[in-house]
Amino acid sequence: MTLTLNGEDRTFTGLTHLADLVAALGLDQRKVAVERNLEIVPRSAYDATPIMDGDRIEIVHFIGGG
Fold first, then answer.
1. Residue 10: CB atoms within 10 Å
2. 63 versus 47: which is more confidently predicted?
3. pLDDT at 47 (0 to 100)
4. Closest to 37 (Cα-Cα) out of 54, 62, 24
5. What are phi and psi of 62, to 5 degrees?
């Protein structure tokens, strides 16, 4: 499946839900915000939100500091 991830076309296999994508990217679900096709997805819905070929995904990763 090909997704547009943060403006860049990327190919993935074996993904069915947003949670799979976040895990495949090695990101912590608690530290990211995800938008799918211009709609922000609540963190609690990552496991239930399907992803499909052609979806546009934007992921913002939060980094702590001080």
1. 13
2. 47
3. 96
4. 54
5. -85, 135
Which tokens go with 10? 């990327």
Neighbour-count burial for 27-54, b at 16+ CB within 10 Å, e otherwise: eeeeebebebeeeebebeebeebebeee
pTM: 0.89
pLDDT band at 66 (very low <50, low <70, confident <90, very high): low
Q: State residue 32's pLDDT score.
A: 95
Spatial strand order of the sheet with 8-11 comes to 8-11, 2-5, 56-61, 32-36, 39-41
Please give, one letter per residue, the 3-state secondary structure of the chain: CEEEECCEEEECCCCCEHHHHHHHCCCCHHHEEEEECCEEECHHHHHHCECCCCCEEEEEECCCCC
